[in-house]
Amino acid sequence: MRIAIDGADLWFDVAGQGLVPDGTGMRQKPTLILLHGGPGFDHTGFKPVFDPLTEICQIVYLDHRGNGRSGGREPKDWTLARWGDDIRALCDALGIEKPIVLGQSFGGMVAQSYATRHPGHAGKLILSSTSARWDLGYALEWFERVGGGTAREIAERFWTRMTDQDRTDYMTHVMPLYNPRAKADPFLRARATMRPDVLRHFGGPGGEMLTMDFRAALASVTCPTLVLGGALDPITPVDRSREIAASLINAPTELVLLDNCGHGVWRDDPDQAIALLSRFILA
Question: Is residue 188 part of a domain?
Answer without folding.
Answer: no
